[in-house]
Amino acid sequence: MAKQPMLKFVQIDRDMPAKRDATVRREDFDEIYAEYAAAKAEEQASRCSQCGVPYCQSHCPLHNNIPDWLHLTATGRLEEAYATSQATNTFPEICGRICPQDRLCEGNCVIEQSGHGTVTIGSVEKYITDTAWDKGWVLPNAPSRERSESVGIIGAGPGGLAAADMLRKAGVQVTVYDRYDRAGGLLMYGIPGFKLEKDVVQRRNDLLADGGVTFELNCDVDAAKFAEIREQHNAVVIATGVYKSRDLAMPGRGLAGIEKAIDFLTASNRKSFGDAVEEFDNGRLNAEGKKVVVIGGGDTAMDCVRTSIRQGATSVKCLYRRDRANMPGSMRETQNAEEEGVIFEWLSAPKGFTGDDTVNGVLVQKMRLGQPDASGRQAPEVIEGADYVEEADLVIKALGFEPEDLPTLFGQPDLPVTRWGTVKAAFQSGETEMEGVYAVGDIVRGASLVVWAIKDGRDCAEAILKKLDAAPAIAAE
Fold it and tell me: From which residue to which does the signal peptide run (predicted)?
């Protein structure tokens, strides 16, 4: 009788890949986790219970076939594991690095809930695809036939690139337009290298280009350009993401030294490419030698505090108005930040900023959690008389993002938007009320996860293909 390769969670403990020591990793922007060795990946994959109702899969936005590729990994069939993983996910090695697995697949693992420690799904996913790249199994798209139809995609972030990948596989001619000089969107310019090294993103960009996707970079899409794109293509996908930073309407907000998270992170990432970045070089967007205060509790705030540590800040503090349990960011990232020297000031919210021309402090009001609000979370309430000033030479606002005014930017007053400014699009297909115009990712959902953008891009591509396939029949009638 063959030996059972799975269900070893009772005999084998959960074991993450080795994490570099905090005193070492805070000195560079390299990824902090090592790669699994083959034997360790097989061992950890074998802990999967292969449960009849895989909650890991149902709680993954892409519904990745996690139990199957864990079984294939455990039995040494790695090329098949990669094929299974790639079948539902355009960028598995990226999701393996940056997805909040503790809130998605791993957080819903059955053996985790039974007290045995979740399967390390994200780390195995990363290992599978990194190995596939090393072995040469990852190849450019080679459609079985070329099609005459073309699709223009505005935005080279994960949603746009996922749509481009799926459409190109079907032989559609695809052009991606983006305002930046490199494709990838926030994968390239927003997320720091210690979470996602940039060669991982660039090799996907190169693969898409090798497969026939055309990139038109440094391209600002205004009214004239949008009209041109719409004229040139059978369909247009809006995948711009949301980049407008939320602000704080409070005293002192105009002082020098108060910066937006996206500007700070983009400058740091550009510097890592060797670009000339004046705002970094003159010290404005550089934390070196400064007391840094970051306002916010999401993953962007975690990126900012950990980047500040690596740039040589003298101190880094994070203000968040709720407590640790109610923080929206990844618990894993919070732990990594604390290990690296970040101090979290829980139940603390800004009330204003001090300084003459340049900020020198944040006026902080202490909070307590009251009754749940409409979202079900306990609402923070001010504790009167507990205000204090937190010294700061650099304040970074990581308060989330809002959509730009696309109807005005694109000269399309008929483009339907919600009261939040996001584009109104049909569920799953992404189709808008404008003929041939679709929208995916954060510009529809609001600021969300990379994995959701990938799902939207893939679903939208499928809907476009169905429409293109139906077009000749409609014309014939």
Answer: none
How many other CB atoms are found less than 10 A from the CB of residue 312?
A: 13
Helix (H) or strand (E) holding 471: helix 450-476
What rounded mean pLDDT belongs to the chain? Answer: 93
Contact 60, 163 (CB under 8 A): no
Judged against a pLDDT cut of 80, whether residue 1 lies above it is answered with: no
Q: What is the pLDDT of residues 225-240, one digit of tens each?
A: 999 999 999 999 999 9
Tokens (6 digits) for 42: 């097989």
Of 477, 474, 297, residue with least CA distance to 396: 297
In the CATH scheme, what is the homologous superfamily, with its name and number, of domain 245-401?
FAD/NAD(P)-binding domain (3.50.50.60)
Residue 477: pLDDT band by 50, 70, 90 thresholds? very low
Could you give the CA distance from residue 410 to residue 434 in angstroms, rounded to a whole number? 13
Of the options 3.50.50.60, 3.10.580.10, 2.40.50.220, 3.40.50.2300, the CATH number for the domain spanning 150-242+403-476: 3.50.50.60
Residues 6+ apart with CB under 8 A from 137: 79, 82
Tens of pLDDT, residue by residue over 330-383, are 888 999 999 999 999 999 999 999 999 999 999 999 999 998 888 788 889 999
Helix (H, G, I), strand (E, B) or coil at 395: strand
Any bridge partners for residue 33, and if so which? 19
Give kind and range of the element (H or E) at residue 38. helix 38-45
Structure tokens belonging to residue 31: 């990824």
